[in-house]
Write a structure and sequence with these properties.
By secondary structure, the chain is of the alpha+beta class. Among the domains are: 140 residues, DNA methylase specificity domains (Adenine-n6-DNA-methyltransferase TaqI, Chain A, domain 2, Alpha-Beta Complex); 122 residues, Adenine-n6-DNA-methyltransferase TaqI, Chain A, domain 2 (Alpha-Beta Complex), CATH 3.90.220. Helices cover 33% and strands 23% of the residues. It has a 5-stranded mixed beta sheet. It has a 4-stranded antiparallel beta sheet with strand order 16-22-19-20, covered by helices on one side. It is elongated and about 80 Å long. The model has no long low-confidence stretch (mean pLDDT 92).
């Protein structure tokens, strides 16, 4: 039990300036074994189709545990690249971007070269896991490289951590596990609520952009089903053109700039110039392909995206944004290794088209009115998740540095 009258000592380490006097500071190599990952040749059939779990950073989720892998290797494959099996309860850490993502192995496994496995020896594995969950920023700083940042084995081995007596480690870990599971259940409930609200929101959007908002309008039968009689069916290529985003590496971005930089998944930074007009639709091309983002201001979409602004469509851009969301462009990818949306594939999509800007604007206003309360509830739930995650991180930091009374 951590007592309130405990005495503290200075550490000289920024992220933990002081710890209880009876705790130690050790290097990771003193309390665990660090195991490097490796990758056998994919072209050799004998290396694959085995029963040994082979984990990559892509398989790290938001859950604590890492289990069965997507791809499994054979003993031959394991030997061909000198990979090592690590036991259950080992901590698996991503050593390449995103450096610091981690989980606990609940099956015996090996990893690719983008991971380091930490096999606890003289430390409680859950205490160490929780400690490392708050170290992502610190570990990322230790990464080196130009093409990609990588956390080296020696840097990880020599990383300093606080270490209480074993009894306190177990006590801290037990407390954090209980609280972690409570918070996880709360987050999962909120995420499910958000999913349901977004489904309801999308249903409103899809109905408006495919059937219109006038209940009394005459309908006609088309290849898309019934649409208002005065609407047209157009292929997407006849509604808009997708422009390619431009190349802009992270080191070339201007962090104090006024223009948002968009990747496929949303805003990824700032820059001093924009390359689009406003407003602008950004469509994921690689990675989160088909995802739709919308910018009210000029911006800089990078080369993993397409974009549409007023130079490449005659339609109202807000209406077009809602149309693209309803088309679900994320359904198809020609590249299974790196999911991507081919522009020509998108262009063949058929869509219902209200022929006047005035009607498109009426549809936008209807959608905004009907989804306003949903948007407010979604934002509130998302904020609650952010706050509980901030609380969880603060709680963990207090516990693993001996600042909280359990």
């Amino acid at each position: 039990m951590i007592a309130t009258e405990v005495k503290y000592k200075k550490t000289g380490i920024d992220w933990m300036p002081e710890i209880p006097e009876h705790w130690d500071i050790v290097r990771l190599k003193n309390v665990s074994k660090i195991v490097n990952g490796a990758t056998p040749k994919s072209s050799v059939a004998a290396n694959w189709d085995g029963n040994i779990n082979w984990i990559t950073p892509a398989e790290f989720g938001n859950e604590m545990y890492i289990g069965e892998s997507i791809r499994k290797i054979t003993k031959t494959g394991l030997q061909s690249c000198a990979a090592s099996l690590v036991p259950i309860d080992s901590i698996i850490l991503s050593s390449r971007a995103p450096i610091g993502s981690l989980g606990i192995a609940n099956v015996e496994l090996c990893t690719n070269q983008g991971c380091r496995s930490i096999v606890p020896a003289n430390v409680d594995n859950y205490f160490l896991y929780f400690l490392l969950t708050i170290q992502k920023d610190n570990l990322n700083v230790l990464g080196n490289g130009t093409t990609f940042r990588e956390l080296g084995t020696n840097s990880l081995k020599n990383y300093k951590i606080p270490l209480p007596p074993k009894e306190e480690q177990v006590q801290i870990a037990t407390f954090l596990l209980q609280e972690y599971h409570k918070i996880t259940r709360f987050i999962q409930a909120k995420q499910r609520l958000i999913e349901l609200l977004k489904e309801q929101r999308q249903s409103i959007i899809t109905q408006a952009v495919t059937k219109g908002i006038d209940e009394n309008v005459k309908m006609k039968e088309t290849v898309l089903g019934e649409i208002p009689q005065h609407w047209e069916v157009r292929r997407l290529k006849n509604i808009c053109r997708f422009k390619y985003g431009d190349s802009l590496s992270s080191k070339d971005r201007f962090d104090n700039g006024d223009f948002d930089v968009y990747g496929s998944n949303g805003i990824v930074g700032k820059h001093k110039i924009g390359i689009t007009k406003a407003p602008c639709i950004i469509i994921g091309r690689k990675g989160s392909f088909g995802k739709i983002n919308f910018s009210e201001s000029p911006c800089f979409p990078i080369d993993t995206t397409y974009y549409v602004d007023s130079d490449s469509t005659n339609a109202n851009l807000e209406w077009l944004r809602f149309l693209l969301e309803s088309l679900r462009l994320d359904r198809y990818s020609k590249d299974s290794a790196v999911p991507g949306l081919a522009r020509d594939d998108a262009y063949v999509y058929r869509a219902p088209y209200p022929p006047t800007i005035e009607e498109q604007i009426r549809i936008i206003e209807h959608i905004k009115t009907e989804t306003r309360s949903l948007d407010i509830t979604i934002s509130k739930a998302e904020r609650e998740i952010e706050l509980i995650k901030e609380y969880r991180e603060a709680m963990i930091a207090e516990a693993v540095t001996g600042k909280s009374e359990l």
